[in-house]
Amino acid sequence: MSNLFLSVIMCKHVLNAQVSIRSPCCRKWFDCPECHAESESHPLKKTLEMTFACKKCKKCFRKDATEFEDSDEYCPHCDNHYIIEAVTPKAALRVEGEDARMDARMLKDERVKQTKKTMNQISIFDPDVDADKLG
């Protein structure tokens, strides 16, 4: 039973695994078939009766795959819904730097073209600004 508690945080393939499954070939606990393939040298033996260990209540239970119903998607001890869509890790590219919401010095406002005149103080008496608009 000590292998059960080691697999609670071990799976890197399914991030939201709700149960550990006892493999019928070596009788060790794994969160997914990929974890079994990585750590064992033999193939995973297929069976219709599976032994699960709920990660919420830490209790074990068996399910027969030939008689699987909608109510069997929940742990019989704590009603934890263990058949859910798997969340797998995804590769992501991120820019290193400070949070732009806190420090926007690295950002440039592309909406207004910065010119020499807009950077300096412009007076209302400057004839070059809007000279073409005068009538």
Automatic annotation (TrEMBL):
Keywords: Metal-binding, Zinc, Zinc-finger. It comes from the Eukaryota. Residues 4-80 form the CHY-type domain. GO terms for biological process: protein import into mitochondrial intermembrane space. InterPro entries: Mito_Tim_assembly_helper, Znf_CHY, Znf_CHY_sf. It comes from Neurospora hispaniola. This is CHY-type domain-containing protein. GO terms for molecular function: zinc ion binding. SUPFAM superfamilies: CHY zinc finger-like. GO terms for cellular component: mitochondrial intermembrane space.
